[in-house]
């Protein structure tokens, strides 16, 4: 065999060997190459062991209650699968200072939750320009009751409901968690013959004390004033009623709290004191303070948004066995 042929064969063999070594590395997502992810449980939740769905289906604008002729709506996220076993439920509540935002914000979270074995619900509620507090928590509790009553129609388990939200949505999610049994916050709209209790909460940088959160802002710039309908000096009792920290007791579900250390919109102290109150009451709670993190947008932080969503899902998995 000629030397030229031998050199060609050796070159081909070298190229094949390099491709076998390099290809798996290049196939990893960019985040996997940039640094290690948080440790995963040694044994994954059994519902994660199902084949991950390639696609999800979204049923939009399902009415969960009607108030004064206004239909309150939610979206439903389901895996496109033939598996009809009951799945855990994750409910998203959007942010927007109680005066803006929309349930479509859930689309940033739902693909990962669906892959992890959940079905998802994303809730709209009356905004402060249309109705004052406690309308917002009445709507969220009505949504939870509707979801629980109709869960099995969508292959959801009504006994395993997680709720999460960002900013104002984090506040409402936290209030759902701490206000079980508080009659003034339950409301009477929509389905009323089932519980509005939730089994686990993730509060992403939501205010926990509405009396103090924006104490330094002028009334005309304070979204809490718009939510309550009057200055805090005139609505202190209502502001306390609207504060998740007011209602903390040992019966509350497990809480995960995530907050950026440099948040200039909702001061990080809101989450620090809330976490301490939960701990003092004997509630299972975990707090993640993100160094350098602002009011969301954890794209360049450590941990980053992808890792934090993973932390949330693992927390839900652990407490929705």
CATH architecture of the largest domain: 3-Layer(aba) Sandwich
Count all strands and give the number.
Answer: 8
Please identify the top-level CATH class of the largest domain. Answer: Alpha Beta
> Percent helix among the residues?
25-40%
Distance N terminus to C terminus?
66 Å
Mean pLDDT: 87
Q: Please state how the strands of the largest beta sheet are arranged side by side.
A: 1-2-4-3-5-6-7-8
The secondary structure category is alpha/beta
Q: What is the element string, with H for helices and E for strands?
A: HHEEEHEHEHHEHHEHEH
CATH superfamily of the largest domain: Alpha/Beta hydrolase fold, catalytic domain
The unreliable regions are 1-43
The major beta sheet can be summarized as: 8 strands, mixed
Continuous helix count: 10
* Annotated CATH topology of the largest domain: Rossmann fold
What portion of the residues fall into strands of 2 or more residues? 15-25%
C-alpha-based Rg, rounded: 23 Å
How does the overall form come out from the CA principal axes? globular
Indicate how many domains the architecture comprises: 2
Secondary structure layout plus pairing:
Blueprint: H1 3-27, H2 30-34, E1 56-67, E2 70-79, E3 87-93, H3 110-115, E4 118-123, H4 135-150, E5 156-166, H5 168-178, H6 183-186, E6 200-204, H7 223-228, H8 236-241, E7 255-260, H9 269-280, E8 285-290, H10 305-319
Parallel strand pairs: 3-4, 3-5, 5-6, 6-7, 7-8
Antiparallel strand pairs: 1-2, 2-4
